[in-house]
Give the backbone structure.
Amino acid sequence: MAAPRTMFEKIWDRACILTRDDGQSLLYVDRHLAHEGSGRGFARLRAEGRKLRRPDLIFGTADHYISTKGPTLDDIDDPDRRERVALCAPNAEEFGVTFFTLGDPRRGIVHVVGPEQGLTQPGLLIVCGDSHTSTHGALGAFAFGIGSTEHYHVMATQCLWQRKPKTMRITVDGERGFGVTAKDVILHIIGEIGAQGATGHVIEYAGSTIRGMSIEERLTVCNMSIEAGGRAGMIAPDDTTYDYLKGRPFAPQDADWETALAFWKTLPTDDGAVFDREVTIDAGDIAPTMTWGTSPENALPVTGAVPDPADEADAGKRAALESTIDYMGLQAGAPLSDLTVDGVFIGSCTNGRLSDLRAAAAVVKGRKAATFAMVVPGSGQVKAQAEAEGLDRIFTEAGFEWREAGCSMCCGFNGDIGKPQERWASTSNRNFVGRQGPGVRTHLMSAAMAAAAAVTGKFTDVRTLEENA
Ligand code: SF4
């Protein structure tokens, strides 16, 4: 009898063409997701007289460089960014690729669009030139970010050399408390295991808490696997997955659906399969959480306080704490809920989906923004659905800006950035130094918590607002 395998090992074995003596394996790529940053790859193909190996397996969308202030090319004021976006359509036509660019209602952030369109499916090996490609693992795929050289290699060959990662299972069991979202769960996990806690591993999330999550919540969890150092994150497909995928434009249809379903049901980790590392988390220990520093591992309950470097015995760690506190403009021991905010960003592939906007709108409804706040839907479809539900009016009547879909302030590549020393509440995934603009101080949190910060002007335990709603 075959040895029990983890879900990751099953997907890896299916994708693996050969393994060299040096341990590098050649993998077949099922889906290659692209964005405006892929322009250089197309230019190199053209210059070298090559074709795409499998244009039918590449799907693109414009997200990083587009303006969120208007829907046309003319809304992009920077000529370099405008050219990157402008090249999407002619490149797609020349190379025969499906590309959702400006004007296409399906356009949006690549990690929102993939699942939304049914391009992301269980068992697939998916790559994209963006580190948060781990998001797609929420549907049972093995998905990871690649660099520009690898990106070109996949374009030309549909294959990729990789060294097999180790496996890690993070089991989260128990009921989530009131006001505790998927973002709080993953921030808590990263706070527990550290930003390097999963380095070299593919994480499988398991347990009753994960099983009880919607697909949109699972996408949030898998999205941030990379912030724990993981190569990828994944969750076994189940009825929630199949219900989500059925009928989506690029999902298998009719008889193909039944064939796919039979395959997908073989994917979950076998009983007795061994992981290189196991971590267990009690969902009851998780509170609404936010980051205070410049790493996602600097996660604390919103009721917590800025750490005091004096409590740190290790001199190196103490110096690092002091430096972080200095950059973030904090006082050791200060309650997080005393900190006022200069801006709020609700969006990104972490928390820019419809359920996030609903959660934020539920907090905002009947209240007014106490600071600058912007909502950037994750995709054109999210925007249209939110508008059909009237969420946009809840935000705009409260004084929030309602923008076009895109990455926006998650990375700031389109010019959406804060000013030096401003303090921002952000639903994105990275709070690194300068990530949202030089000198900007970013605090990561859920969409509901960001909305709470927007209407109070300071970091606020969302439970106090939701209980009084
Ligand atoms: S929203 Fe941020 S993490 Fe997601 S694809 Fe865009 S830049 Fe990357």
Q: What stands out?
A: The chain has two domains: 7-277, 303-467. The mean pLDDT is 97.
